Here is the input.
Amino acid sequence: MPAKVTAQLAWLCILTVFLAIYPAWLQKPPKRRTVNSNAQVKMTGCCNEVKELKLQIANMSAMMGELNKKQEGDWVNVVMQAMKLEEITKRLESRLTDVESKYSEMNSQMGIMQLQAAQTVTQTSADAVYDCSSLYQRNYRISGVYKLPPDEFLGSPELEVYCDMETDGGGWTVIQRRKVGLISFNRDWKQYKEGFGNIRGDFWLGNEHIYRLSKRPTVLRVELEDWEGNIRYAQYNHFTLSNEYNSYRLFLGNYTGTTGRDSLRYHNNTAFSTKDKDNDKCVDDCAKFRKGGYWYNCCTDSNLNGVYYRKGEHTKNMDGITWYGWYGSTYSLKRVEMKIRAEDFKP
Ligand SMILES: *[C@@H]1O[C@H](CO)[C@@H](O)[C@H](O)[C@H]1NC(C)=O
Ligand SMILES: *[C@@H]1O[C@H](CO)[C@@H](O)[C@H](O)[C@H]1NC(C)=O
Ligand SMILES: *[C@@H]1O[C@H](CO)[C@@H](O)[C@H](O)[C@H]1NC(C)=O
Ligand SMILES: [Ca+2]
Here is the structure.
């Protein structure tokens, strides 16, 4: 090949790579809103990450510049290097997108906080932020962590919740999740009352919060995943808990779903039990046998707050995360989520 053509080819290649990078430079960070200092700290952390990624991308293009100078030499080598750079750049860009989507989630949290500030002035019960379904109605459509403002009228404190804004139309407040398996669910009454765990990982929202959130007509959705990645769900209308005085007794309406048999109905109209409070309908102490807090009857047809067993260990015990109607009494599931939303919710 004549030297001129090779040089031109190399240039063309470099130009293409450069154009692939350029749009990432142009992306402006989403606009800042100033709400409170706590939020600011998070925002700064995030922006630094974005900044750093952008710097790295800029560095890549500086290295492209160096390559330009070398283009007189061996062009195959240049093209190879350019391709390698392009690959790295692509990886950086996808990381940037990742960070920016996290950032937009934070932004929507900012929105809630603003709302909170506005609300102290204009709140009426009609536009109260009550749960994730009311947030959805206010156009918060990104799944993630939100802060529900305190409400004196409803007697509720500020509460951090995880909203599922995607499943079956969204608007779900997640009340329980098992998927990581690092924390114990064999906890006492007080911990089950107040809630425990990590809102982004495994947690129990707290019986007192669930009781309060299910005071108005509420749907409960239970999502189950086995170790092969199959997902099933069970859904109930008229889900509610009684108050602590009545031991957070469970009430369920009719079942719809795909979980084989309904394995929560057996626990209907049953009080909550923990290792330090035996409210079950058995001479045995179910919470001790099944190692969780649950609406134990005598004892279980499901045990969603049981012990998390990993693959290989998941079929050997009776105290795992079970749903008898799908896999029987000894198969511990890989992932479970329980979530609620208002019965009159319309996506
Ligand atoms: C760019 O990256 C190279 C290789 O990783 C590094 O040696 C150099 O210091 C970086 N330059 C800047 C400005 O970050
Ligand atoms: C459950 O289904 C029965 C029979 O279809 C119906 O009569 C009843 O009203 C339903 N209950 C609820 C809570 O929806
Ligand atoms: C659950 O128990 C309550 C109270 O006994 C009852 O009214 C309701 O129909 C029951 N739900 C189901 C699904 O059986
Ligand atoms: Ca008992």
